[in-house]
Amino acid sequence: MWKFASIRLPEADEQRIKDELMALADETYPHVHIKKLNGHPDAPVYALRAGQYRAILTIDGDIMVIFVIEVENRSTVYRK
User: Fold this and answer.
1) Origin, by domain of life (predicted)?
2) In angstroms, what is the C-alpha Rg of the chain?
3) How far apart (Å, rounded) are the C-alpha atoms in residues 51 and 17?
4) Between 61 and 18, whose confidence is greater?
5) Do 7 and 72 meet the contact criterion of CB atoms below 8 Å apart?
6) Sheet holding 65-73, edge to edge
7) pTM to 2 decimals?
8) pLDDT by residue (tens digit) across 4-29?
9) Which of 9, 10, 27, 31 stands the most exposed, by the fewest C-beta atoms within 10 Å?
10) Higher-confidence residue: 76 or 23?
């Protein structure tokens, strides 16, 4: 279920990101905990903070499906 293929994160950071995503999935109002990113009018793209990392994701529909696009250090993730 969880696979971080493109970069190797420290185990503690990887666990923190997983925990944050699981907490987001359990939220009734998840949009309170994420930041909407500009420049994506067709499908809203959001950023979830997890320490020094950001998970770039979308949320699909009434049944929450979280699709994580990328997890990277906050200093470089917004440049792509």
Assistant:
1) Archaea
2) 12
3) 8
4) 18
5) yes
6) 35-36, 46-50, 53-60, 65-73
7) 0.73
8) 555 677 888 888 988 998 898 888 88
9) 10
10) 23
The amino acid that residue 57 corresponds to is L
3-state DSSP percent of the chain in helix, strand and coil, to 5 = 30, 30, 40
Tell me the domain boundaries of the chain: 11-79
Q: 16 φ, ψ to 5°?
A: -65, -40
Give Cα separations from 37 to 5, 15, 40, 51, 78 (angstroms).
24, 24, 7, 18, 9
Q: What is the mean pLDDT of the chain?
A: 79
The structure tokens listed for 30 are 């998840």
- Do residues 68 and 21 make contact, with C-beta atoms less than 8 angstroms apart? yes
